[in-house]
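Researcher: Let's continue the batch. This sequence belongs to Calponin-homology (CH) domain-containing protein, and it's 210 residues. Same format as the previous ones, please.
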Amino acid sequence: MSQQGEYRRRPGTPGLPVRSIRPFKSSEQYLEAMKEDLAEWLRDLYGLDIDAANFLQVLETGLVLCQHANNVTEAALAFLAEEPVQAQRIPMPRTGVSCNGAAQPRTFQARDNVSNFIQWCRKEMGIQEVLMFETEDLVLRKNVKNVVLCLLELGRRAWRFGVAAPTLVHLEEEIDEELRHELALPPPDPPPPPGEPLYMPSAVLHGQVV
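Model: Same format as before. Here are the structure tokens for Calponin-homology (CH) domain-containing protein:
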């Protein structure tokens, strides 16, 4: 099975190659690096034609966001069924979102899709308000930074129940592990045991967004 399209991966199993942390001369450069990482993540998950340059254009109809939210919800429910005791310790979504698949950029339908995704992040994923964005922040590019921060936080939270995470999340985990070792801190809750991905939408296997 190829790496592209593999949607759910157990924490603790080999993931994407971890890049070195490079210094950035400005916050704009760091923002571009985060966009590049998120674009690579979505490309690997769904086979999308996406990079840092067209990152916002691909997301602005809200279609990819809502479909990813529904895939995360499905993965969470699968994890809950398999690991009910451990799942009780992890905030996870129980309900997905509705989505208009015919939405065009900068239309009411696109704004509605993005708004549905935002409300799902707040209510189902419990993402803090300081990391959230509003519809116009994506559609009209008013606050790109918070769009990026919200998606990274979603990646962190969904990784707890087995959804493949962006490379930056893996880097953070390695740094946290080093600090716990140096300070002799107790380990966090153990991740799910290593194994094959349990959740693999059929359309993802064919390089399509579900």
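Researcher: Any comment?
Model: The chain has one domain: 27-183.
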